[in-house]
Design brief:
The structure holds two protein chains of two kinds. Chain A folds into two domains: 80 residues; 144 residues, MucB/RseB, C-terminal domain (Phosphorylase Kinase, domain 1). In chain A, 47% of the residues lie in helices and 21% in strands. Chain A has seven helices and seven strands, in the order αααααβαββββββα. Chain A has a seven-stranded antiparallel β-sheet, sandwiched between helices. In chain A, a hairpin with a 2-residue loop joins strand 2 and strand 3. The two termini of chain A are 40 Å apart. Chain B has two domains: 80 residues, RNA polymerase sigma factor, region 2, helix turn helix motif (Rna Polymerase Sigma Factor, Chain: A, Orthogonal Bundle); 93 residues, Orthogonal Bundle (Arc Repressor Mutant, subunit A), CATH 1.10.10. Chain B contains ten helices and no strands. Classes of the chains: A alpha+beta, B mainly alpha. At the A-B interface, helix 1, helix 3 and helix 4 of A face helix 1, helix 2, helix 3, helix 6 and helix 7 of B.
C-alpha cells in the first residue's frame, strides 16, 4: 500500500469507497479500501461524507407508504378487493380493542413460551450454516454505518448495530438468516478466532426480558428481549465470554 | 376463472408487498406524488398482465423495472424536458466529477449530517433524473448495485459512478447552501 498521493485518490478509487460503504466489495477488496481509508485522508474524508449524508437521510427522509386510497384503487382495478362486508367503524374499533387486550396479555406469554424453541433451532442452524460457508457474513465490514443500512430492504427492520471492537468483540459484518419462516437480520462479531452470530427478531409488544443462557448442539446461546426485539447470541465461545458480549451489547441499547 | 384467480393470487403475493417501494420510486422519477399515482396504476396493470411470467424470487426487481419503464414513458409523453438523454448525462457526469473532487479535502460532515428535511429533499429533487433515481433506490429502498443496474438498465459500473456523483453533488449543495 502506498502513502497518499494525488493519483491514489483518483475518481475511480474514490468511487470504490462508495462501493465499500454500500457493502458491494468482497472481503479482499474491502480490506484494501480499509487500508486506504486509514492511510489517505482523502479516502477517510470520502467515507465521512458518505456517513454524514446517510445519517441525514436516515434522520430526515421517511419511507412513505403508498397512500391507502391509491392502494384501494389498484386492488379494485385488479379485482383483489371485493365490495362486500366492510366492517363498520364501531366493529373495527371493537376488534382492535379486543386484539390489543389479548395481545398485551396472555398471548405474549404464549408466544414467548412456544416460539423460542423453534426460533432457537432455526437461529442455531443459521449459525452453523454460516460457519460452513466460505464467509460467515454476506456483507463483510467493520463499519457499523455500512452494515446497518445494508439490511434496509432485506429485512423488515434494520437491527441496532453496536461497535464493541474496543471491548474485544470486533464487528465482522452481517447476513440475513431465515427463522420462523421469514428473513431476519444477523450481525456477525468476532472473539479472537471465534464467531458470534447475533440475530434480532421483532416480536409482539414492547417487552424487555432476560438474558437467559442455554446450550443447543454444543453452542452457547444467550437470549434477551429489548423493546420488543428478541436477540439471540450464538457462539462456541465460552458462556462467560458470550454473557460479557450480551452485557456490552445491551448496554449500548439503553 | 382458475387462471384469472391464480393471477390475482400471484399479484397479491408477489406485487402488493412492494407497492410502497414502487410508489416512492415513481415519485422520485416524476418528482410529483400526483404523477406517481398515474404511473403506479399503469405499472400495476402491466405487472398484472405479465404476472404469470415472473418467478417468485425476483418479483421486486421485476416490478420496479416495470415502474421505471412506465415512469420514463410517462415523462417522455407528458414532460419530455425532464428526461435527459444518456449522452447528455455522460457529458454532465464528466463535468460534475471535477466539481466534486476538491471538496473531499474539506469535509463539513457535521453540517451535512445535521441538514434538515426540507433542504435534503430540495437537494435530492435538484439532482438529474438518473442520479436521483439511483440515489433513491440505494439509500431509501436499500437495493444493491446489481438490482439497481437491472431496474435502470445500465451496467453496474454506471450505478457506482452515478451513486458517488449523486452523493458528491448532494454534499456540495448542502455544504455550500446552493439550493
Amino acid at each position: 500500500m502506498t502513502n497518499s498521493t494525488p493519483s491514489s485518490s483518483s475518481d475511480n478509487s474514490i468511487q470504490l469507497v462508495h462501493a465499500y460503504m454500500d457493502g458491494e466489495l468482497d472481503l479482499t477488496a474491502a480490506l484494501g479500501i480499509e487500508e486506504k481509508i486509514a492511510a489517505d485522508p482523502n479516502f477517510a474524508a470520502a467515507r465521512d461524507r458518505i456517513i454524514a449524508l446517510r445519517e441525514a437521510v436516515q434522520q430526515n427522509l421517511t419511507r412513505d407508504p403508498i397512500p391507502p386510497a391509491l392502494q384501494r384503487r389498484i386492488e379494485k382495478t385488479i379485482g383483489l378487493r371485493q365490495e362486500t362486508s366492510h366492517p363498520t367503524r364501531r366493529a373495527l374499533a371493537a376488534s382492535i380493542a379486543l386484539a390489543v387486550l389479548v395481545t398485551s396479555g396472555s398471548t405474549w406469554l404464549f408466544l414467548d413460551s412456544k416460539a423460542p424453541q423453534t426460533m432457537e433451532d432455526a437461529i442455531v442452524a443459521g449459525h452453523i450454516r454460516a460457519l460452513m460457508a466460505p464467509q460467515p457474513a454476506d456483507i463483510a465490514s467493520t463499519e457499523r454505518h455500512t452494515v446497518k443500512p445494508w439490511f434496509n430492504g432485506r429485512v423488515v427492520e434494520a437491527p441496532h448495530v453496536a461497535d464493541l471492537a474496543n471491548a474485544g468483540f470486533p464487528l465482522i459484518g452481517g447476513r440475513v438468516d431465515v427463522a420462523g419462516g421469514r428473513p431476519v437480520p444477523t450481525l456477525v462479531y468476532g472473539r479472537r478466532k471465534h464467531i458470534i452470530s447475533l440475530t434480532a427478531v421483532p416480536t409482539a409488544g414492547k417487552a424487555t426480558s432476560g438474558p437467559s443462557v442455554s446450550v443447543d448442539n454444543g453452542y452457547n446461546i444467550v437470549h434477551w428481549v429489548t423493546n420488543g426485539i428478541s436477540y439471540w447470541a450464538v457462539s462456541d465461545v465460552s458462556a462467560s465470554d458470550l454473557n460479557e458480549f450480551a452485557k456490552l451489547f445491551r448496554a449500548t441499547q439503553s | 376463472m382458475g387462471a384469472e384467480g391464480d393471477n390475482k393470487a400471484r399479484f397479491a403475493k408477489l406485487i402488493t408487498p412492494y407497492l410502497s417501494h414502487a410508489y416512492r420510486l415513481a415519485r422520485s422519477i416524476t418528482s410529483s406524488h400526483i404523477d406517481a399515482e398515474d404511473v403506479i396504476q399503469e405499472a400495476c396493470l402491466r405487472a398484472f398482465r405479465g404476472i404469470d411470467a415472473v418467478g417468485d424470487a425476483n418479483a421486486r426487481a421485476w416490478f420496479l423495472t416495470i415502474v421505471h419503464h412506465t415512469a420514463c414513458s410517462w415523462l417522455r409523453k407528458n414532460r419530455p424536458a425532464a428526461l435527459i438523454s444518456v449522452v447528455d448525462v455522460a457529458a454532465v457526469e464528466a463535468k460534475q466529477a471535477k466539481f466534486g473532487e476538491h471538496h473531499n479535502d474539506t469535509p463539513e460532515t457535521a453540517l451535512i449530517a445535521k441538514t434538515d428535511r426540507a433542504r435534503l429533499e430540495a437537494a435530492i429533487g435538484s439532482l438529474s433524473l438518473p442520479y436521483r433515481e439511483t440515489f433513491t433506490l440505494r439509500e431509501v429502498e436499500g437495493l444493491n448495485y446489481r438490482e439497481i443496474a437491472e431496474i435502470t438498465g445500465v451496467p453496474i459500473g454506471t450505478v457506482m459512478s452515478r451513486l458517488s456523483r449523486a452523493r458528491d453533488q448532494l454534499n456540495d449543495m448542502i455544504e455550500r447552501n446552493r439550493l
